[in-house]
Design goal:
Blueprint lengths: L9 H4 E2 L10 H12 L11 E6 L9 E6 L6 H10 L2 E2 L24 H33 L20 E8 H11 L3 H21 L25 E7 L9 H4 L12 E7 L9 H15 L3 H16 L1 H13 L3 E6 L6 E3 L2 E2 L14 E8 L2 E8 L7 H22 L5
Parallel strand pairs: 1-2, 6-8, 8-11
Antiparallel strand pairs: 2-3, 4-9, 5-12, 6-7, 9-10, 11-12
Helix pairs in contact: 4-10, 5-6, 5-11, 6-8, 6-11, 9-10
Length: 418
Amino acid sequence: MKWVRTKVDLERHVIVPELNPNMDSPDKFVEDYVYNLSKTTIDKSQPLWDLHLLNVKTSDSQAVGIFRIHHSLGDGASLMSLLLACTRQINFPEALPTIPTKKKKREKTDNYKALWFCRFLMVFWSVFQLFWNTVVDIFMFIVTALFLKDTDNPLKGPPGVEFTPRRIVHRTVSLDDIKFVKNAMNATINDVALGITQAGLSRYLNRIYGEGKEDEGQGRPTEIKNNLPKNMRLRSTLLINLRPSAGIQAFADMMEKDTEAKYGNWIGYVLLPFTIAIRDDPLDYVREAKATIDRKKHSLEAIYTFSFAEIVLKLFGIKAASALSHKIISHTTMCFSNIAGPLEEIGYYGHPMTYLAASSYGQPHALMINFQSYINKMTIVVSVDEGTIPNPHQLCEDIAESLKLTKDAAAATLHIKL
């Protein structure tokens, strides 16, 4: 298969259905519209994208645009770069949006020769950790491809789940709350997002495993008691951007011929173990997430998975590479990602955008959770197979509630009254 140049007929790509402006539940209509879209695929006789403009007022916006793009056109960083290249800042109509960038830490310099030996030991230990972590992760990657599956649980979809439609729901929370926890814990936004996701999934699963059980003398389903099974293996595939410079790239730079930050699919993935447990201290979820991610950062697992897939693709073709990827992903429970959005309010030709909610369907997971930032908001997007997870709104609510509990716990450690 290869790309061929073609003409774009916008009439086939931009869909504007006639809608009843006085419908009873606009939010439910949009949710059902996306659900029905996930039952279909894009016609392969045309470029693999379409845009649906729904002129209906919801609780979040005056209208909704649904941009559906096939993943073969690019990964999350590429597609977000493309999206942002089409927008401008509301306050400065000629300016492109800006996106968060990682700040480089300044290294302190000194002339003490006594520290040379300590630095040498630190470098040696760092290289050894990188080597050891990579070996362990590659081993887990191989055994997962061969036979190691996650424990059966209420979030894990059955075989063939990639062909089922998806219910995609979202919940917007305060990015400032996440930053507050981040600063209190000396962590990253990704650490906090992963931590509250683990906490939310633990609350959700604890409730399900507790159905039918009752606390003594209270006559109601237990939520406080730990109903979770022991030694549960629940892993997520975490998508990693492998471009030299992290974050969203300037679209013009990505389209340059010899640029390092290339457009397309330049992602690896790591197998991320989730801690599913009931903790008395909500901050423990963030501590555990930070420890897991810090270890994964000190590993070449993402580069290995990307390179291995490239080798299989070139040697055995697309079907073999697809089968390998499918087998590994289907042996895990879910997919998790976190994409940084613009720092300013943006719009299309002067029409302000109120929120961004990125997700996907067609993967062999019954659950995918995306975190998408935009100005001072963070949108939690949950994509589920309803046959496996019939109440995605409750799962969204559990993650949002976990953020509130984590923030309150962080404020308590700092003796701040909220």
